[in-house]
Amino acid sequence: MARLTPGTVKTLAQELYDYRLADDAAASVAHMIGAMAAHSRRLQNLGLAGLQPPFGYPTLVAEANRCRRRE
Amino acid sequence: MSTHDEIRAFDVATLAAKLRVKQISPVEVTDAYLDRIEKTDGRLRAYITVTAETARAAAKKAETEISAGNWRGPFHGVPIALKDLCYTRGIRTTGGSKILGDFVPDFDCTLWARLAAAGAILLGKLNLHEFASGATSTNPHWGTCHNPYNLDRVPGGSSGGSGAAIVARSAAATIGTDTGGSIRIPAAFCGCVGLKQTWSRVSRYGVLPLADSLDHAGPMTRTVRDAALMLNVIAGRDPNDATSSREPVPDYVGACEREIKGLRIGVVKELTAGLADEVARSFNAALVQLRSLGADVTEVSIPAIEHAAAIATNITWAEAAEYHEQWMRTRPQDYGADVRRMLEAAMLVPAAHYVRAQRARAVLLAQALAALDKCAVLVAPTSAIPAPRIDVGSRALMPTGEAVNMVTAVLRFTAPFNVTGQPALALPTGLAADGLPVSMQVIGKPFDEPAVFQVAAAYEAARGPLPEPKL
Questions:
Q1: Within an 8 Å CB–CB cutoff, is residue A66 touching chain B?
Q2: Structural domain tally of chain B?
């Protein structure tokens, strides 16, 4: 499990988002993010090499066209 | 003339047949449902907004149209309600939040526009877990939503009001949304049908997002056939939703008529462990019932399913954090404690982990499709447990006695099919000894909702009706 401290997550929230994380929240968030990071590392064992993320180009083009219609 | 109780006993299909031949009028039907809301919603809190006046006006219009021979289809004159994530022009759309407490959209979401064009009557907007971000529908801003079978239990979430209203008969059909199970969990806990169809099958235009790449909006109904009727109205390409599919929309209702003799059904092995005894018993009885209908029930394996809840959570957090960032900076105090805590953690999900979770979806879908190579559909319990008590908060007691996060207890069963985008329909398998509903999911290949309806409808007919809750 990733070793995130409450202090680290407080700093990250402050620096990245200008968001003040309370002390009790910081401890809980550090635990939640640590657990999530550990899960994420395990996903590497699924053999993801060469797999594309499901972000389709047709959606990109369609959204660009919708943006142009809005202008 | 029918009594209000008789009218409310009709499912949408029956109601439609009677409305069409003018045996009952949309005005009577709407009054019956508004009366029910008035009598029960003080205890249930299924509704955030009741649109009684506009509903009565729409009912009169529908009555005039049907009387003139202009019947528009099975939803003409049928009173329904929408989860309060769905934009409704001129009607408050809160997302179950304080932040959007006064938000009034100036357009309708596509799915409501389609239902309204089909003649449906809007009874109101339904309670939910704030911003669809939890599984209890214990809402600090609009009141705690209760389970009609036991008011001390949660209705599930996030579409808790949508499930409660169906079972309490305070709407003929409802719309819910599902990012990790938010249609199927309340369908399971309240004892109704909930369909999360294939991702992209129904437009999400005008539906407040939780996580775009996992979000679905779909029917919650009393019967499988009603879900098929509703999907036939709301499915299909929408130019306003670039992700909506161009796949043709088949006849879903017709699929409900087909026998399942000889059909192979796969039981997802990984989702049959860790069940409460009553859930296991009811699920096994459902498998026996499917076999008695002539289905060939066999076990299949999707090993990567153990990663599904983590994949779904990672993606949901990352996408939700992006949507909520501005409000988290400026109005954090206006979120409920649990949603705020989730978003605080969500803000710190590394981008690399988000992309990895997205890539992992293909592995899970590949395994699910392999399991479906020789099966028409898959089945699994919808939840390991029946509805937990409201006063346990977001914790739930597992069969082992271990207290775990409620989301974890149910997400393991439902989230895999948000990750894969496959259609999954939850329907009750009966009531447990304590009178609480238990449920099974029927899962299909992408865009093969007809097979899901076929199996679910056959099982539902064999199962027979559930006892009604005593409210």
A1: yes
A2: 1
Q: What angle do CA A60, A61, A67 make, to 5 degrees?
A: 90
CB contact under 8 Å between A28 and B332, yes or no, is: no
Query: In this structure, are residues B132 and B336 in contact, taking their beta carbons and an 8 Å threshold?
Result: no
- Contacts A18 to B, Cβ<8 Å: 329
pLDDT digits (tens, 9 = 90+) for B6-54: 999 999 999 999 999 999 999 999 999 999 999 999 999 999 999 999 9
Q: What residues form DSSP beta bridges with B31? A: none
Q: Does A32 touch chain B (CB under 8 A)?
A: yes
Residue B59's domain is classified under what CATH number? 3.90.1300.10
What are the tokens at A39?
């899960």
Q: How many Cβ atoms from other residues are within 10 Å of residue B414's Cβ?
A: 32
Tens of pLDDT, residue by residue over B80-107, are 999 999 999 999 999 999 999 999 999 9
Q: Do B353 and A40 touch (CB under 8 A)?
A: yes
Measured CA to CA, the distance from residue B95 to residue B125 in angstroms comes to 10
B12's enclosing H/E stretch is helix B12-20
Residues contacting residue B340 through CB under 8 Å, at least 6 positions apart: B328, B332
pLDDT in tens, A6-52: 999 999 999 999 999 999 999 999 999 999 999 999 999 999 999 99
Given B182, B213, B383, B439, the catalytic residue:
B182
**B419 lies in some domain:** yes
CB contact under 8 A, B347 and A58: no
* ipTM value: 0.94
* Domain that residue B409 falls in: 3-463
Is B117 a member of any domain? yes
